[in-house]
Amino acid sequence: MTHRNHTTHRLRKLLQPHPPQPPRTPTWHRLITAARGRLGPEWWCLAAGLTVALLGASVVPLAVGAAGVPLAARARRARTARRDRERRGDAVIALCGELAGEVRAGRQPGEALQLTLRDPAETDIGPGTARSAVLAAARFGGDVPGALRTAAQEPGAEGLLGLAACWRVAVDRGAGLAAGLERLEDALRSERDQRADLRAQLAGARSTAVMLAALPLLGLLMGAALGADPLRVLLHTAPGLACLAAGGVLEGVGAWWALRIVRGAEER
């Protein structure tokens, strides 16, 4: 009887429909995903250079693409640093507003600062060590203005210098901390809005510079469409190589100069 039950159970398992298996990801897709996670977008310069090198049967585009990788990586790091600086500035503005609200609610300054800095994701005013130093000073009665000045050395956190000054005045002279924090928040917010407006006004100039820098590529595409074979002329003849070198230098200097003008206007 036991053997019959065992046989029946095996037959039911065999006849039971199996759940559909998820489709297997192709190997090339897994390799591309892994490379994308490990390599930065600047490596597309090398890929573009390799493509043009294969089309033009020359190693010159490959060398140019390889040389463009560190430049693109530097630009990416600068863009990341600018975003971190802006995010840190927004965190300082939010910190001033929340701290003023806690003080208005009747909390002591040290307790209010501890409550405001309790969430590191919402108050990213700098590295964890700087934030911990400010928290420790507020919790144990240490030099809070000194800790704030140390944290203000991070790019984007310069508004903490104003917070340190407000804290020092409130402690030494008994002045209203909340009123000073609210004025500081308004000043920092106004400065941030002015920078955003200026960046929006300069967006057109930056787009024009990028468009002008891309015009030589458009000329190459038009020449190829007309059957002129510009890659052969540029990569396999002495005049073409000379024109390519001179044009590349002038293109790089022009793009650098235009972006320098825009960046200088943003920093004023």
TrEMBL record:
It holds the Pfam family T2SSF. Residues 97-222 form the Type II secretion system protein GspF domain. InterPro entries: T2SS_GspF_dom. Its main location: membrane. The chain crosses the membrane at residues 46-73, 209-228, 234-259. Residues 1-15 have a biased composition (Basic residues). Residues 181-208 form a coiled coil. The keyword Transmembrane applies. Residues 1-26 are annotated as: Disordered. It is a multi-pass membrane protein. Keywords: Cell membrane, Coiled coil, Membrane, Transmembrane, Transmembrane helix. It is found in: Cell membrane. This is Type II secretion system F family protein. It comes from Streptomyces atriruber.
